[in-house]
Amino acid sequence: MTTTTPASVTRAAPQADGRPLGSTPTGGRPARRRGRSPNERNRPFWMLAPGGILMILVIVVPLILAIVISLLDLDQYTLRSWLQAPFIGLQNFIEALTRSTLLRSIGISVSFAAIAAVVTLPIGVAAAIATQNKFVGRGLVRSIFLIPYVLPAFVVGTVWRTMLQPGGVVDDALASFGIHTGLWLNGPQSFWALILVQIWSSWPFFYLLVLAGLQAVDHEVHEAAAIDGALWWTKLRYVIFPYLRGPIALAVIISFLHNINGFTLPFVLFGVPAPQDVDVLPVLTYITSF
Amino acid sequence: MKARHALVAVAGIAILGLALQGCSGGSTPTASGSSAAVDGKGKSIDVMVAANTLYPTQQKQWFQDVSDRFEKTTGATVKFETYASANDELTKIQTSVISGQGPDIYNLGTTFTPTANATGAFVTLTDADWDKLGGRDKFLPATLGISGPDKKHEVGIPFASRPFVMAYNTELLKAAGIDKPATTWDELTAQSKKLTSGDTYGMALAYADSFDPWKFIWAMSIQAGNPILDGKKARVDDPTTLKAYETYFNWLTKDKVVDRQAIGWKNAQAVAAFAAGKAAYLPMTTSTSKISLDSSVVAGKYAYALMPTVPPGEKSLPKGGKAASSILSGDNMVIAKYSKNQDLAFALMKQLTSASAQEEYNRLFGDLPTNASAAKKLEDGNEQLVPIIDSSSKSVGTPFSGAWGDTQLALVNVVVQSIPSLSNGSISESEIKSKLASAQSTVQASLDKAK
After folding, report:
1. pLDDT digits (tens, 9 = 90+) for B149-178
2. In CA terms, which of A115, A241, B78, B179 is 20 to 30 Å from B205?
3. B118, B261, B451: residue with CB nearest A167
4. What is the pLDDT of residue B254?
5. pLDDT, position A167
6. How many angstroms separate the CA atoms of B358 and B12, rounded?
């Protein structure tokens, strides 16, 4: 498995020189033959079999089946007789790209997921830093911050749908300031409504991970920074943030994937068929499959 | 290394083979035609029905009563399972078909019957089968309209009927000097204009509902002679359908007989507006609205009437049009082909569709009987239900095609995507036309695929 082109070249060269196999070649890298080093010899590879079989069953077989099925002319009604289904090559993919709004939905999903993830990041960081120092009622504030995150997406969607309706509380509140917005749950604004609600419900996720990152900063680091006379921004920028890089990167990735896969929120907020501005990928998939 | 590769490959092929065998396997059901009294001692039959969210406790009691009665006559018990949505049920049907085991009988919504039938999982009813159920004649003829693609290939046994009607506020109509509810769509529009004043509107409609809009469009279209799906041809871009959408949209934009906020309403909100006395008409509702209306401020001040049966722009039914007052709405029961207890299943369906059982079902849940004699008896005893039973017999089935689900969705989608324009106060004919053109191609594609 470790055999690569350069290695075989270097191995061939000494033979031509008449030198014994295995001596250090000119390339500087010791030539190694498979299974030669003592700790590689006689490894009981068969012990990997249970894991390997599981991998094949759980990942490889379904993957192969999925690829095969994607090349057949099938729908939900003929699924049970898929062995008899005609092979149609890439027709399904061509149809998805040309006759459905797949590309548009991917665009909507990706931009929605990215915007929501990027906006929630500073909110979560700010909230975590604000509750880092001890103050009276900190425990309560921290708990309250988690409320949007623990509410089921269905509940969040239903409440926001009621609030955002034409003539609902959001419209009324804005109207009292003289602002008259159009529809929230349909039309171009619906995209921003979706982002708004997603931000509202998902920022505590960043807050949680950043808080965990902050707890990992040693007390001595804070002290040292204070002794060196670092002001809050300098301290935050050069002392604290480097500690948070890991958790934040993780949070951005998880949050992005979570947003892309989110079905419940857009489904409950906008219903099906979805308005075209919020026809995200999971909803399109749902519509197309049923 | 090579040997290992080969081993892995062999193992993979073996597993794949096993998996394939599992998929294609499944035992053949035992079909039997004996008409003697069925003996099911010690057996149990499995029935899958929709969960009744309105009367959950009564439904549990009904399950028990049905099972007890069935045990008395056949010795077998009945086990009920419930599902929450049609999608849940379709998944259950598909997995049952593949594994060759699952519920013996399924309860299907009428418009969902063609979609479920496309799985090919259900017993096609022969004359002998109908005899086992007590004869095809015992059902109201109209309720058989969506049992199958044609008379020779029926799978659905009509079980309950829930036709659509409109409710109207008797006091508001009287105050406006209208002595009887509208019977044509034009008349409904004219009356609604008269009935609109201040914050009281002529009609309560749910433009944002996922189901309501297509029923209006379908009704107006079929009355004008367009069944939307005409054999293998979709007719969504037909002028009659365009006229239907224009009528439906104009109520909001031009005639202004509907609350502007209705563009965001679901069905329940339209019912609530009518129940609060803020609308004179509540079109496209069923007898199930009776419960909420009877406990509202309009209790005793409302009545039901047939929906208009003359298409917009016409004074009488045009040639080729059907006087459909409602989609054929309710429940069918189907028997699974893979069931090993088909005789018991027929015996149970005979029991459930008998006049007495149907009367009891109506008393408990408000759904109308499909049994002709039970329906007749009900009509004689209840003044308020007369228009609903009348609508039941004037219902027309939606096209029996596996593509109907997609069609419904495409019809609603036209309304959903029009809402931003409606919100701005108007929608042009060309905009509706372009939306209809894209709906047409979606529906036609789905129709081409439907087997």
Report:
1. 888 899 999 999 999 999 999 999 999 999
2. B179
3. B261
4. 95
5. 85
6. 55
Structure-token match 């204009």, residue found: B193
Structure tokens at B407: 């069609």
At the fourth CATH level, the homologous superfamily of domain B165-326+400-449 is: Periplasmic binding protein-like II (3.40.190.10)
Whether A275 and chain B come into contact, CB under 8 Å, resolves to yes
| Cα–Cα dist A258/A267, whole Å | 15
User: A1 in contact with B at a CB cutoff of 8 Å?
Assistant: yes
Checking if the pLDDT of B357 tops 90, the result is yes
Q: Which residues of B touch A273 (CB under 8 A)?
A: 210, 409, 412-413, 416
Q: Which of A77, A171, A192 to mutate to test the interface with B (most CBs of B within 10 A)?
A: A77
Domain B44-155+329-396, CATH = 3.40.190.10
Domains B44-155+329-396 and B165-326+400-449 share a fold: yes
Is B120's CB within 8 Å of A272's CB?
no
Give CA–CA dist B407/B341, Å, rounded.
35
Query: Does residue A61 sit at the B interface (CB-CB below 8 Å)?
Result: yes
CA angle B398-B289-B291, nearest 5°? 145
Specify the 3-state DSSP secondary structure of A152: coil
Quote the strand ranges of chain A, DSSP E. none
For residue B369, CA distances in Å to B30, B141, B373 come to 31, 12, 9
Interface contact flag, B261 A64, Cβ < 8 Å: no
pLDDT tens by residue, B49-86: 988 877 888 899 999 999 999 999 999 999 999 987 77
Chain A 207-266, residues with CB within 8 Å of chain B CB atoms: none
Going by pLDDT thresholds of 50, 70 and 90, the confidence category of residue B117 is confident
**pLDDT tens per residue, range A181-226:** 888 999 899 999 999 999 999 999 999 999 999 988 888 888 888 8
pLDDT band at A179; cut points 50, 70, 90: confident
Indicate the domain borders of chain B: 44-155+329-396, 165-326+400-449
Q: Do B15 and A75 touch (CB under 8 A)?
A: no
pLDDT at A20: 44
* Multiple choice CATH, A102-289, 1.10.10.10, 3.40.50.1820, 1.10.3720.10, 2.60.120.1690: 1.10.3720.10
pLDDT range class, residue B14, cuts 50, 70, 90: very low
**B316/B312 Cα distance (integer angstroms):** 10
Query: B369 CA to chain A: closest CA distance, Å?
Result: 30
Share of residues in chain A with pLDDT > 70 (%): 84
Amino acid at site A10: T
Q: How far is A208 from chain B (nearest CA, A)?
A: 35
CA distance A197 to chain B (A): 18
Q: Which residues of A touch B412 (CB under 8 A)?
A: 273
Q: Best mutation site among B115, B265, B419, B427 for testing chain A: the one with the most A CBs within 10 Å?
A: B419
List, in sequence order, every beta strand (DSSP E) within A67-215.
none
Predicted local confidence at residue B89, as pLDDT = 79
What mean pLDDT is predicted for residues A133-150?
91
Q: Which residues of chain A does B264 touch, with a Cβ-Cβ cutoff of 8 Å?
A: 165-168, 183, 185
Structure confidence by residue, pLDDT tens digits, B19-40: 444 343 333 344 444 445 678 8
A44 neighbourhood in chain B, CB within 8 Å: none
Please give the interface size between A and B, counted as residue pairs whose CB atoms are below 8 Å apart: 88
Q: At a CB cut-off of 8 Å and minimum separation 6, what does A111 contact?
A: none
What is the maximal distance between C-alpha atoms in chain B? 94
Cβ–Cβ of B419/A187 closer than 8 Å?
A: yes
Smallest CA-to-CA distance from A276 within B439, B86, B449, B206 is with B439
